[in-house]
Amino acid sequence: MLRNEPRSEDATSLPPWERVLWKKQPYADNYIGPHFFRVTKKQRAVSSIEAFTGCRVVTHQIFWCLLVVSAFHGLSGGALLPWQLMAATAAHAAFTFCRSRPGWTAVQMAVMCVCLCGCLCGGVVQSLTASISTDTIYACTTLLLVLHIVLHHYGHDIALVNETLSHNVGVFACVCLASRLTDYWAVFSFTVAGIAVFARPDREDNRHGCIESTAAAVAETLLLFSVTAVAVWVYVPVLLPLLLFSTALSNVVLPALFLRLQHHRQNIYGPWDEARID
């Protein structure tokens, strides 16, 4: 940015430069006063607590995806019964209701719609991918769950975020997995659980005014990690290394790397978008 200083002999006679628009001043158009950058801030430092607790929403989505995969393997292997999955889904829905308090009418409509869709679509889902190989379904489901994590809204409006598409691909991943189940009630319970997980109103960030304390955020993350670890260990232990690696990566490695490299940022926050019009 160019800066034309006034001549020294005229500096004392000129009025002070003001940061305003469309006002005739005895300065060049590209002149910037010496006090302009005093109110700017080149970077907003992120504390260690903010860095390590801010990544919890990403970790939660990873846990939910692994829980869905664990539930599928439990149902397909017979280790998890449909009524057990429905009970866990009801407990999760009750916790979400107590947390968000959307209103009793909204809860009744949501439960009725989910149960009706599950009952009507159960038979269709069973034969939806009959002509597609199981390996293809698993690969497609993996890509859909990764896409859900990438597109999910974590509290910042960026071009990559698409909350609607993120919810849709998550539900479709559950539908693809449910099509590989043979029992009708297993399909119904898994479909309802997938809708409860991926199509629920997201209140894990501050976009809706839900500001949690650090202790509550850490406690919720530890609880969800414990449930996920137990489910993975019981139903699909082959994914336990993936759980540990993703947890360490998103909660330790990436926040520490961000804290180490954040001083290299050159973002300038200043008053140029706040000029007064005289």
SS summary, helix count: 10
Q: Strand-residue fraction? A: under 5%
Order of H and E elements? HEHHHHHHHHHE
- Chain oligomer state: single chain
Strand arrangement within the widest β-sheet reads 1-2
Q: How many E strands?
A: 2
Radius of gyration: 26 Å
Please give the structural blueprint.
Layout: H1 8-11, E1 20-21, H2 48-54, H3 56-77, H4 82-100, H5 104-126, H6 134-151, H7 163-178, H8 184-198, H9 214-235, H10 240-261, E2 276-277
Parallel strand pairs: 1-2
Helix pairs in contact: 2-10, 3-7, 3-8, 3-9, 3-10, 4-8, 5-8, 6-7, 7-8
Structure explained in plain terms:
InterPro entries: Plno_GlcNAc_GPI2. The chain crosses the membrane at residues 62-83, 103-125, 137-155, 184-201, 213-236, 242-259. Pathway: Glycolipid biosynthesis; glycosylphosphatidylinositol-anchor biosynthesis. The protein is an all-alpha fold and 278 residues long. It has one domain. The protein is built from 10 helices and 2 strands. Strands 1-2 form a two-stranded parallel ribbon. Helix 3 runs parallel beside helix 7 (163-178), helix 3 (56-77) runs antiparallel to helix 10 (240-261) and helix 5 (104-126) crosses helix 8 (184-198). The longest helix is centred in the middle third of the chain and has 23 residues, at 104-126. It is elongated and about 90 Å long. Mean pLDDT is 78; it is low at 203-211 and 273-278.
